[in-house]
Structure formats: structure tokens, C-alpha cells
Design a protein that fits this description.
Layout: H1 2-11, H2 29-44, H3 47-57, H4 70-82, H5 89-107, H6 116-120
């Protein structure tokens, strides 16, 4: 008992060591407060969270367009001159489509009857063309 009293007197001011046994140490208000203080300190001092909070707390400055550096200008000029502007893009697409159509019709002659020009022809519907009467 004397040893216990001496131990408690020495460690009374230390909050990190509970004066109670392991099962009931949460009933010690000082130890309980210290444990929660440690949890709060750990959660509030996390490096990623601190960096995020600092980014949120930084005042936002109205920023105009950044001034171009010389290296940026050179890169922009290189990017502008790497590709030539396509001239007659619609003409190229149209000619490519016609070549594909010709290729398809050569390989599938049965599709010729489904063409719009073939359907507009009066003979496509079975009409008989007779010579004009005088």
C-alpha cells in the first residue's frame, strides 16, 4: 500500500500513465483527456491535411493571363509550324468517299440496283420504254 501511494504521488502529474488498472483506465479523466488530445494532435498535424488547409487558406489573387516566357513563345512557334493546314479538306473527304464507293461497287455489283440513280431510272420499276409516237 505504501509503495502504491508512493508510486501514485510520483506519477500523479503525468497524464500519459493511468493510475488505474488496464481495464478501467478510461475512467481516469486525466488519462482519457490526454488520449483524446493525442488523437486530435495526430489528426490535426497530418502533413497532407496541413498542406490542403494551407492551400484553402491562401488568399486568391485575381490573376490575369500569365506573361509568356521566351521559352513558351518558342515552343508555341514550333507547335504552330509542325503541321501544315489542310487545304481543301472537304474535297479530300469527297474524293476518298468516291473511291471507297467505286471499290465497293466493283466488288459487289448487286448493289448497283440499290443506288439512288438506278432507282430513279424508269426502267428500274419495270416500265417499258417505247419509242415516241409522231
Amino acid at each position: 500500500m505504501v509503495i502504491s501511494a508512493l508510486y501514485n504521488a510520483i506519477h500523479f502529474c503525468q497524464l500519459d500513465i493511468s493510475l488505474l488498472n488496464r481495464g478501467v483506465e478510461t475512467f481516469d479523466p486525466g488519462y482519457h483527456a490526454y488520449c483524446h488530445y493525442l488523437k486530435t494532435e495526430v489528426s490535426q498535424s497530418h502533413p497532407l491535411m496541413r498542406a490542403f488547409c494551407l492551400l484553402l487558406l491562401q488568399p486568391t489573387k485575381p490573376q490575369g493571363p500569365p506573361e509568356p516566357r521566351m521559352g513558351d513563345l518558342e515552343e508555341g512557334l514550333q507547335l504552330m509550324h509542325t503541321k501544315k493546314a489542310p487545304s481543301g479538306g472537304g474535297r479530300l473527304k469527297r474524293s476518298r468517299a468516291r473511291w471507297w464507293l467505286a471499290y465497293t461497287l466493283l466488288n459487289n455489283p448487286s448493289l448497283m440496283t440499290c443506288r439512288k440513280t438506278a432507282l430513279c431510272d424508269p426502267t428500274a420499276n419495270g416500265a417499258q420504254l417505247s419509242p415516241p409516237r409522231p
